[in-house]
Every structure is written in structure tokens, then in C-alpha cells.
Design brief:
Elements lengths: L1 H26 L1 H6 L2 H13 L5 E4 L13 H8 L8 E3 L4 E4 L6 E4 L11 H7 L3 E2 L8 E4 L2 H14 L2 E3 L8 E3 L3 E3 L3 E7 L11 E10 L7 E8 L8 E5 L12 E9 L7 E11 L4 E2 L2 E3 L2 E2 L4 E8 L1
Parallel strand pairs: 1-2, 1-4
Antiparallel strand pairs: 3-14, 4-6, 5-6, 7-8, 7-19, 9-10, 9-17, 10-11, 11-14, 12-13, 12-15, 15-16, 15-19, 17-18
Helix pairs in contact: 3-4
Amino acid sequence: MLLLGGLALLVFNLYWVSSDLLVRWPAQPETEIAYHARVGRLASYLDQTAADMPTLICDSQRPLYAGDVFSSTNLMLLMRNRKDVDLHFADCGTGMVFIDGGSRQQVIMPDPETLNGMQPYLKAWMDRGTLSADMPTNSVILLEVAQPLADTVGRFTTTAPAGYAPDAPGGAGLAETPVRFGGNITFLGYERGSAAPFPPGGIVTTITYWRVDGAVPPDLRLFTHVLADPATAPAAQNDTISVDVRQLESRDVFIQIVFVPLPVAIPPGQYGISIGAYTAANNVRLPVMDGDQMRGDRLFLGQIEVQ
């Protein structure tokens, strides 16, 4: 009886300990945080799917230095076993990539707050996809938007006209989208903003669409200028890019949202919006092409009023 009782007690304790160790302890929120369970599951998921499914990571692939604090994306990439699979990267706050013209892809969000903090225009595109119910909350979206993307870009040809710069060879004139730039990128069009006047100190927002046609300069940047006169220096500007161009491939389409703060002391009047691209290493702008003819190095997207 003593032997049987001791054996029963041992079995009971083994069950109790194993249940605590393998069931209750891993399920505690503090344990998931301490052991990075979310990014661990995403790393395992990438190992299983990324070789067969084009994948966009909502973050930058930031290099690590001594003393750096690992981001969720850094940890996820380090936890992967298959590191030979190509991934796309965009911040998803002001930039988005539709791989292969909007064909089926998956969007991975290592940070659980990415989706909730996304710029509303980009969030509307994400809402067309399906959140994976088998993965952590707000972590994986399956997205296929080839037709809506084609419809949106087609609409730009009539609703959002662009123009060549007045000082460009051939002079000013309507630039029918798509407009090819040097560096294997093509301007597809833009969303027209509000016609309401802007106050001094306000923020001008531009939303532009671009297509990749080949190898892109690794230091590509996009500029947005607010100009009182095409021949003068910008009254306000913002140079940026929110996608990692090193992973972009032919037929990829990306959206760039740019916020341009206006100076508080900006004089009232009409201002033009010009956009273009350049390489950061030498500040050389990419040419705007009209067939085989160069038409300057910028396009104009209409005007705004400041009052």
C-alpha cells in the first residue's frame, strides 16, 4: 500500500508539474512577452510559407550595431531557419508595396500595433485582405488586390492630371500617366487632395503610386516640393521613401504618402506641387521621359491655395 501510494503521489506530481510547465506557464502573458512568443510564431510561419508566398514585412530591415535594442522585426528575422528567402519591406505607415502588381501576397506585422496605427488611406487597402485567424492578433494579412489596384491606377488618367515642368525640354504640357522615369521606375498617378485652402503652418499630403520596371537605384529617394514659382526655390519640401527599394522587383507597385509641413510665415497665394526622384549618393535627379524624349526631371501635380 505504501508503495502504491508513493507511486500514485509521484504520478500526480508529474502530471501537476508537466501541466504547469507545458500548459499554464507558456500561456501566461508575462511568459509570452519575456520569450517573444509572437515573433517566434511569426518566424516559424515565415519558414513554412515565405518560399511559396510573396511576403511583405511591415517594418524596415534595420542593420544591427553593438548596443542596439532588438526590434520585433530584428528578432523575427534572427529566429528564422530559412534565411535565403527574399522578403519585401515597407513601413506600412506611409508606404506600401503591392508585390507583382497586387497579386496574392501576405503582409506580416511583427508589431501588434502596426495595423491600428496605419495611415487611414493605407488601412483601407489592408481592409481588402483577410486577417489570419490562426496567428497572433493583427499579425498576418492575406491580400490580393490586382483588380482594385488596376482600377485605381486607371482612374488617375482622367481624375488626376499631371504636367511637365515649364522649364523642361518641350515646355509645359499634359503628362499622360503612366510616366516613365529613369532608374526603372514609372509614375502611375496620384490621389487628388482637398481643394480647400491650407492655412500657414498646415500640412500638405501627397499620395503617389509608382511601378518598378527593373533594377532600382539602392539609394532612391522621392521628393515633394511646394513652390510659389517653378523657377524659385521650394517654399516647403519633404524628401523621403518608405519602402526598402533593395528588394523591389519588376511589376511591384508601391504607394508613397508624403507630409509636407508649410512654414508658419508662408505668404498667402497659389503654390504648385512638384514631385520627382533622385539618387541620394550624388543628389542627381532621375529624368522624366516622354517616349524617348527627356522632359525635365520633375512633374507637377496641380496647385494648392494658402490663405
